[in-house]
Amino acid sequence: MKANIIMNPHPMTLSPSDTVATAADRILKHHLRHLPVVDEQGRYLGTFSIYSLLKLTLPKAVLDKHGLDNVSFVTESVGDLAQRLGKRRDEPVKNWINIHEVARPDTHAMEIMLLMLHGRTTSVPVVDKATNRLEGIISFWDVLEKLVGESH
Amino acid sequence: MHETTAAASTFHMALAALIFVITYVVIMTERVNRAIVALLAAGVMILFGVINQEAAIRGVDFNTIGLLIGMMVIVAITRQSGVFQYLAIWSAKKVDASPWGILAMLSVVTAVVSAFLDNVTTVLLIVPVALLITEELKVKAYPYLFSMIISSNIGGTATLIGDPPNIMIGSAVNLTFNDFVVNLAPVIVVVLIANLIPIYFIWGRHLKAAPEDRKRVMDFNERGAITDLVLLKKCLAVIGVVVLSFVFARFLGLEAATIGLFGAAALLLLQCWPHDADEQSKRVTHAFTECEWITIFFFVGLFIVVHGLDSTGLLRLLADKVLAVTGGELNATAMVVLWSSAILSAFIDNIPFVATMIPLIKAMAPSFGGPEGLMPLWWALSLGACLGGNGTLIGASANLVVAGFAERAGQPIRFVPFLLTAFPLMLLSVAICAVYLYWRYL
C-alpha cells in the first residue's frame, strides 16, 4: 500500500503569513498536533506543530543549540510563560515551522511507519517530488485504521 | 660540497617559508578547517624534506598538548555538574538583580572562570545564563555579551592555563603557574577594571529594569542549577588538587602536562568507579568526545610547521632583523613585541602567531644576556597576543562563539560596531600593559 492511498488528501493547512494565534486556535479547536504550512501554489514549506507552540513559550536562551539544558532553577509561573506566548501571538507562523521528513505519493507503508518511528512524529506530509506540492498528510491514525481494517 | 649544502639550505628556507605563508593565508580565509590545514602543511614539510618525521615529532610540544587535553577532560566532566551556571546565577542575585550590577558581576565571573578554563568553554557555559537573565529583565543582551567577550579574553591572560598562548609560552620557557599569576594577574585586574569603566558609561548607566522583572531573577533558585552534587564535590576536590599542584609545581618537580593529565585520569576514575564496564566506557567516551580535537590537532600541525621553519634558520634571521630595527634595546624590543602581537592578534589567530614568535624570541637570547634577559619579552608576548584578541570580532574563538549566540537570539553582533568600541578598548588595555611592563621590568 502506498502513501497516496493512506493519506488524507484534504488536510487542514496554514499559509505562511497566518499568525501564531490563528495556528494555536486551530490546533486547540481540532486537537491537531501538526499543521502543514503551504504557499499560494500549494507548495509545502514546513510544519507548525504543538512543539512550535512549546518553543514559543520558552525563553530563547533555553532553545539555543548550546542553550541551558537544565532550567530547574527558574521559577516562572504559568502566567509568565503565557505572557511570553501572548507577546508572540501576532508573529507569522513561518518563523516557527520545522521542515519534517516527507513521504512521496508512491512511498510504501513500511517506510512511512519507519519515518514516524525515527522522526518521533505522528504525521508525515506527502509531497510531490517534482512540484514540491503538498498532496496530503498521513497521520498515525490513518495508518492504524488501515492496519486494523486489513487484519479483520 | 659546502656550496651545495648552502644552496640546499637556502632552498629549504625558501620552501619552508612558502609552506608557512600559504598555511597562514589558508587558515585566515577559513575556507578549510584549520586542523586539516595545519596537518596537511606539516605533512608537506616532511614530504619536501624540510624536516624528517623524527624531527617533526620533536617539534611537537607534548607538554602543551598534554596540558590542553587534561584540562579539557576535567572541564568536560565538571561542566555536567552545573556549577558554572550556579556561579552566574548566584552572582546575579548578589547584586539584587540590578542590570548594571549583573553586567559587572557576570563580567568578573567570566574573567575569573576564564583564568582557569578555556575561554570558549567559559562563554559556552555562562552566556546562556546571561541571555536568560537579560530576557527576564527585558534589557538588551548586547552590552552583556560585549562585556563577557572582553572579560573572557582579559581573564584568560592571567594564568598559565587561561589561554593557549600562555600554555605554549609557559611550556617553551619552563614558566610555572605562579610565574604567570605573579607577573600577569596584577595588571590583568587593572585592565579589567579599566575596561568596565567605559562599558559603564557607554551602556551600564542606561540599563533599567522593572521591579517585577528583577524579582523574577531574584526568584531564581541557584541550587536548582546544580544537577549532580556528588559529582560536583569530586570535581572540586580534583580541581583543588590540580591548582595546588600547579602552585607547587616547581617544588614538586612536576610539569604542567603531568598535572593536567593526572588530574583528568583521577577525575575519570572518580566519575566511573564503581560502575560496570559499559557505563565506564560510555562516560570515558563522553569526556573524550568533548575534548576539542580540532584545536589539539591544529596545535600538532602548527608545531611541526613552525619547527620546520625554525630548523631552516629563517626565524633566527628574522629575529636579527627585529633586533636591528629596535637597535637591540630591550625596552624598544618589548614594546614592538607587545604592540605588534596585540594588533596582529586582533586579526589573525593568536595560536599560530605565538607558535611562530616563541622560537623567534628565543633566538634573541644572546643579545639580551641569555634566557633570563628575555622575561619581559615573554610577558609582552603573552599580554599582547591574549589581549589583542579583544580588538575585533574575529580576534579570538570566544568572540565568534558569543557572536553565534547573539545571532541565534536575534540580537546579532556586527563586525564594525563591535570594532568601533572594542578596538579602542583593546588599545587602552595594551597601553596599560605597556606602562606596567616599563614600570616593572624595563
Could you explain how this protein is built, in words?
The complex is a heterodimer of chains A (152) and B (442). The model of chain A has no long low-confidence stretch (mean pLDDT 90). Chain A has seven helices and four strands, in the order ααββααααββα. Helices cover 39% and strands 14% of the residues of chain A. Chain A is globular and about 50 Å long. Chain A has one domain (3-151): CBS-domain. The two termini of chain A are 17 Å apart. In chain A, the strands form two sheets. Chain A has a two-stranded antiparallel sheet with strand order 1-2. Chain A has a two-stranded antiparallel ribbon with strand order 3-4. Chain B is mainly alpha-helical and 442 residues long. Chain B has a domain at 64-289. In chain B, 77% of the residues lie in helices and 0% in strands. Chain B has helices at 2-29, 34-47, 53-59, 62-78, 83-94, 99-116, 119-137, 142-156, 164-173, 177-202, 211-218, 229-247, 249-252, 256-272, 277-289, 293-311, 314-326, 330-345, 350-362, 375-388, 397-408, 415-441. In chain B, helix 4 crosses helix 9 (164-173), helix 9 (164-173) runs parallel beside helix 19 (350-362) and helix 18 (330-345) packs parallel to helix 20 (375-388). Chain A binds chain B through residues 59-62, 64-68, 70, 72-76, 80, and chain B through 82, 85, 89, 124, 128-132, 135-136, 216, 219-225, 227, 404-405, 408-410.
| Helix fraction bin of chain B | over 70%
Taken as a percent bin, the fraction of beta residues of chain B is under 5%
Task: Count the beta strands of chain A.
Answer: 4
Sheet with the most strands, sense and barrel status of chain A: 2 strands, antiparallel
* Number of H- or I-type helical stretches of chain A: 7
Average pLDDT of chain B:
91
CATH superfamily of chain A: CBS-domain
Short key terms for the protein model shown above:
heterodimer; A: 152 residues; alpha+beta; CBS-domain; two-stranded antiparallel ribbon; 14% strand; B: 442 residues; 22 helices; 77% helix; globular
